[in-house]
Amino acid sequence: MINLNQRFFSVSDVNKYIKTILSQDENLKYLPIRGEISNFKRGANGHLYFSLKDKDSLINVVMFANYANKVPFALENGMDVVVLASIDVYVGRGSYQLMAFEIEQIGRGNILLELEKLKKKLLEEGLFDESRKRPINIYPHSIGIITAKNSAAIKDLTTNIKRRYPICDIYVFYASVQGENAPKELLQAFNESQKYDLDTLIIGRGGGASEDLSAFNDETLVRALATSKMPIIAAVGHEIDSTLVDFVADKRASTPTGAAELATIDIREIEQHFDYAIMDMQKALTSRVDDMKDDLENALEKLNNSLNDKIEYLQNYLHNASNKLEALNPENILNRGYTLSLDKNGNVIKNLKDLNTGDMLLTITSQGTINSEIKNIEEKK
Predict the structure, then answer these.
(1) Model confidence over 133-176: pLDDT tens digits?
(2) Helix, strand, or coil here: 51?
(3) Cα separation, 229 vs 198, whole angstroms
(4) Are 53 and 35 within 8 A, CB to CB?
(5) Residues 11/17, Cβ–Cβ less than 8 Å
(6) Using alpha carbons only, what angle is made at residue 24 by residues 22 and 26, rounded to the nearest 5 degrees?
(7) Which parts of the chain fold into alpha helices (H)?
(8) Using CA atoms, how far apart are residues 203 and 214, in angstroms rounded to an integer?
């Protein structure tokens, strides 16, 4: 049991002690170490930071500016180099690293060369052709995700997909994304995903060092992805380095959030489209109603004009007919000095042959009537 009354050592005490021990070991000073550069960065102060790796191991390296300024060539990832360095401890993190003094270039690293060789072979087979790339359905019913369990990537993907397009179903197929078993588990997850009716399959992880991405350069996995039933979005989450999975995928996103954006339309955009559509429909309906009002007014005006013309025509016709009737009015004839004779039955005398001497006549004038007896009938010669 720990005696709480005894003297304690702080974390800094331990790290400083280890640093002292290592710095005093002459076997750990000025070692020529060969490896391949990865994760290279140049600090704003001129210091160089990178990893030195071989097939099985990796160690961090720092080269301060006073030594870095003497390097006669530009460092880049994939270089095969020999570094003259001493073992040092970074007390702040309790990690050991190489303190580099000189660097000599041997050539391009074997790991990088093998990767480029594989990339060239797959490229020549057509696995990376643009003609194979399929469009992404941004209105998906379901999306599959292949990534590590309890990772930041799965949280980012599910959160952003649900935020952007909440009606989409999400199927997750978990697998390791780095380490010795990662390629096998990624392949198993992919094979499982092919049993589902998915619109899109997203495969990837969050950011990481380039050597942690080796599972996404596995040839068997890349060839399997090329046979996918549904379009694939690669979201390996590494802005600088591209993996072979990025090349075989239909689309590539530099982050899981970017993959969610490629895979779905934002529902807010749909709502905005609906708002615009409703506004356009309202404008179209208003314009149509205005046009119909104008057409109705024009039709009413034409109808009124037609009715007025018809009424005027009928009025003229009635006036002319009235004049004709007036002209035929017997009273007007009598007023002009004519008389009208009727026989004993009250019929207008039209033919003298219908009359006999002794018949009584009634003669109508404008001033009155005359009763007379026929004494003599003479026909016109």
Answers:
(1) 999 999 999 999 999 998 888 999 999 999 999 999 999 999 99
(2) strand
(3) 9
(4) yes
(5) no
(6) 95
(7) 11-24, 65-68, 110-124, 152-164, 182-193, 219-225, 244-248, 256-263, 267-327, 330-335
(8) 14
